[in-house]
Amino acid sequence: MKQQLRLMAVHAHPDDESSKGAATMAKYVSEGVDVLVATCTGGERGSILNPKLQGDPYIEEHIHEVRAREMEEARQILGVRQAWLGFVDSGLPEGDPLPPLPEGCFAVQDVAEAAEPLVRLIREFRPQVITTYDENGGYPHPDHIMTHKISMVAFDAAGDPERYPDSGPAWQPQKLYYNQGFNRPRTVALHEGLLERGLESPYGEWLERWKSIQREERTLTTYVPCDEFFEIRDKALIAHATQIDPDGGWFRVPMDVQREVWPTEEYELARSLVDTSIPEDDLFAGIREN
Asked: 271, 277, 27: which is closest to 131 by C-alpha?
């Protein structure tokens, strides 16, 4: 009897699941994989980024509830399950020097204590594969960095019955990946692909900024073909109406160009307890065989 394959995607805020690995999740759902999104915070300190909704008094007063409804709509579009870990959004500090983070927010929690709800969820859901962010958070938002920290603790602790003994029977995930969808090779390929077709690229300034930043190139180990699900990805992202402008840069690359030039989503294999060969095209490589 085949074991049910299960994937857990750990994200900092509602909307992150739709901008990072969403097509991958939709692909696996279509194949019968059980997919659960763990959302660390409610996104209640996030800005309203869609200019069409800025200044709306109801949204500003009820941002937590609004973002929860957006998350539910995106969840249904992707076909995944979703759980809240219950932490409070830390916000993105701005200024020089940076102000202190708000008292009680996610990023100031003790890492060992903050990992407990995730350990509990892993033991309940029993995923073979977990995706999360790298040590830089993908970008240096304090909640993204904290998401990385608790994910690393929980990956190891969930399988150890002596750690968090009151958080359910031990379960050891087999693989952990970092989302690396915003990578330089993909961005360059799409930029050049647009210019070759005589189309305007939204990535020119982005690539120029990239040159000025001392940024470590990540190792891309896993390329999941999922271009059939790019429309679902975009629909889920648009469901987060406060966070995305449907007429903005996210959607300026024609779908046919995306599919032809770069039909995958990329990951960095950070931990594996099974044998696998790099590069991979499947997050469950080495698990399906066993």
From this structure: 271
Instruction: Quote the tokens at residue 135.
Output: 């040590």
Spatial CA neighbour of 178 closest among 199, 154, 148, 157: 148
**How many whole angstroms separate alpha carbon 19 and alpha carbon 233?**
7
Got the DSSP string for 99-140?
Answer: PPPPTT-GGGS-HHHHTHHHHHHHHHH--SEEEE--TT-SS-
pTM (global) more than 0.85: yes
Mean pLDDT, the chain, whole residue set: 94
| Phi and psi at residue 171, to the nearest 5° | -150, 125
Instruction: Tell me which amino acid residue 53 is.
Output: L
Burial class of residue 256, CB neighbours in 10 A (0-12, 13-18, 19+): exposed
**How long a stretch of residues is the chain?**
290
Backbone angles phi, psi at 42, to 5 degrees: -90, 0
Instruction: Please state the rounded mean pLDDT for residues 85-89.
Output: 97
- Asked if the model's pLDDT at residue 191 lies above 90, the reply is yes
Contact indicator for 5, 281 with CB cutoff of 8 Å: no
Domains of the chain: 6-182+219-272 (3.40.50.10320), 184-217 (no CATH)
pLDDT, mean of residues 150-158: 98
What spatial distance separates the first Cα and last Cα of the chain, rounded to whole Å?
A: 12
Percent of the chain at pLDDT > 70 equals 99
Assess whether pLDDT exceeds 70 at residue 101: yes
Is 239 exposed, middle or buried, given 0-12, 13-18 or 19+ CB atoms closer than 10 A? buried
CB atoms within 10 A of CB 94: 7
Q: Which residue has the tokens 């059939």?
A: 228
Helix (H, G, I), strand (E, B) or coil at 19: helix
